[in-house]
Write a structure and sequence with these properties.
Number of domains: 1
Shape: globular
Bound molecules: flavin-adenine dinucleotide
Strand content: 15-25%
Oligomer: single chain
Largest sheet: 9 strands, mixed
Order of helices and strands: EHEEHEHHEHEHEEHEEEEEHEEEEHEEEH
Distance between the termini: 32 Å
CATH topology: FAD/NAD(P)-binding domain
Radius of gyration: 21 Å
CATH superfamily: FAD/NAD(P)-binding domain
């Protein structure tokens, strides 16, 4: 049987990998050329430490404050859109303790499973994508953030995840080669990182050598349906492709495609930026999140990537100069020896995180079209959750119960 996957980001490619392992014929269809999308320029962090969903108590108050600062890490571009209003309302309603309590153990298991699958992939002879498990430091400068991060560390410990509360001196001891200016940190030794551009390139090559077919530069523009099934995909190239099973893994664009099928999927694009410094003279050895600035700093191979901001932008391709400056200016506040003088906006990468309003992915078969499997909405954790999602897609296709419970991920839950 052949499965057609719409979208060749980390979710689509991981699905292709595990579907192929189960003996399916696979075609990946992508509107772009698989060279620079959201799954390429992200911060490369594999994060069991991220067990709190984006929708959580306290987030709205922070978000409102950030909306009024031109250099803050969060912004919603105002626009008249019923979908945006419904998304915001659902986000508001999801920011509850009950929601967080339900989501935490599931996100923990999903991320740990995915990290395990990454370490298996990394030992495969086809792959050298700089996977390293050195942990992640949550660096902070302020007492208020310290209290928040230490509370998170306690919650992590309750969930059985290792989290070390470190003083400034203990943090510096982990980064002996680079001066830090922080109040302290929480160290999550179980987190990992990799070089996403290498991963995506190598995964694509490996899949091609295993006979996976790629149709690139071909956007799915519409669907033909017969008796509750998708029968054909219409492509921007004019091709009409008969299908048996379809996986929708088109990231932030998935909502538009679902709409064509008469299905609602609340999803907004969370635009973010990154720059990659090639072999800088100085760089940290351990990836870090700069807690107040919400900036990710990741050593990748010999390079250093700095990324941040979440702008709900309606797919605006523009780089917001001030917001990007906000990212770069935060860097020397935590690492005084690192330069923030990056000016060349043409080298700034941007990508769109597929954000659901409760901060949880959409995973599962459609009830309306039973040959359609939805796999998207992974927001800030799509890279991290890629392999486990791909494995889940394959499990669902062969009728096996996946290792992680899917109850919270129903694509029709809103
Ligand atoms: C600045 C930044 C930093 C990040 N850091 C991290 C991190 O450290 N760790 C982490 O886990 N996650 C991180 N993320 C999030 C992560 O990058 C995303 O969650 C993930 O890449 C989403 O993957 P995807 O496959 O769902 O979507 P995408 O990578 O967006 O892939 C979707 C694909 O679908 C294709 N497509 C769209 N429409 C159509 C159509 N009509 N027909 C055919 N194809 C179509 C697109 O061309 C695209 O290639 C970060 C994101 C950003 C922006």
């Amino acid at each position: 049987m052949r499965v057609h996957i719409i979208g060749g980001g980390i979710i689509g490619l991981s699905s292709a990998w595990y579907l192929r392992k189960e003996g399916f014929e696979v075609t990946v269809i992508d509107a772009q050329d698989l060279k620079e999308g959201t799954s390429h320029g992200n911060a490369g962090m594999i994060v069991p430490s991220h067990f709190i969903p984006l929708a959580a108590p306290g987030v709205i108050a922070k978000g409102i404050k950030w909306m009024f600062s031109r250099k803050s890490p969060f912004y919603i571009k105002p626009r008249l859109s019923l979908e945006l209003v419904e998304w915001l309302w659902t986000f508001y309603r999801s920011c509850s303790h009950a929601h967080v309590e339900r989501a935490m153990p599931v996100l923990r298991d999903y991320n740990l499973w995915s990290r395990q699958l990454y370490s298996e992939l990394a030992s495969h002879p086809d792959f050298r994508f700089c996977f390293e498990q050195k942990g992640i430091l949550m660096l902070f400068k302020e007492a208020k953030t310290e209290a928040e991060e230490f509370e998170l560390a306690d919650q992590a410990a309750e969930l059985g995840l290792e989290a070390q509360k470190l003083s400034a001196a203990a943090t510096q001891a982990l980064e002996p080669g680079l001066r830090l200016d922080v109040r302290g940190s929480v160290y999550f030794p179980g987190d990992a990182h990799l070089y996403p551009n290498l991963l995506i390139r190598q995964l694509t090559t490996a899949l091609k050598s295993q006979g996976v077919e790629f149709l690139t530069g071909a956007a799915v523009t519409d669907f033909d349906t017969v008796n509750g099934k998708i029968s054909r995909l219409q492509l921007s190239t004019g091709q009409v492709v008969p299908v048996e099973k379809v996986v929708l893994a088109a990231g932030s664009w998935s909502a538009g495609l679902m709409k064509k099928l008469g299905l609602k999927l609340l999803l907004q694009d969370g635009k973010g930026y990154s720059v990659t410094l090639s072999s800088p003279e100085k760089r940290p050895g351990i990836p870090a999140l700069l807690s107040e600035a919400k900036v990710a700093v990741t050593p990748m191979g010999d390079d250093l990537r700095i990324g941040g901001t979440l702008e709900i932008s309606n797919f605006s391709p523009q780089v917001d100069r001030l917001r990007f400056q906000g990212i770069m200016e935060s860097l020397p506040r935590y690492y005084p020896e690192l330069n923030s003088g990056w000016q060349d906006l043409s080298k700034v990468w941007h990508g769109y995180r597929p954000c659901s309003p409760d901060g949880l992915p959409y995973m599962g078969f459609s009830k309306k079209h039973d040959n359609l499997l939805v796999a998207t909405g992974h927001a800030m954790m799509g890279l991290s959750l890629g392999p486990a999602t791909g494995r889940m897609v394959a499990d669902l296709m062969i009728g096996k119960q996946p290792e992680v419970k899917l109850d919270l991920f129903d694509p029709a839950r809103f």
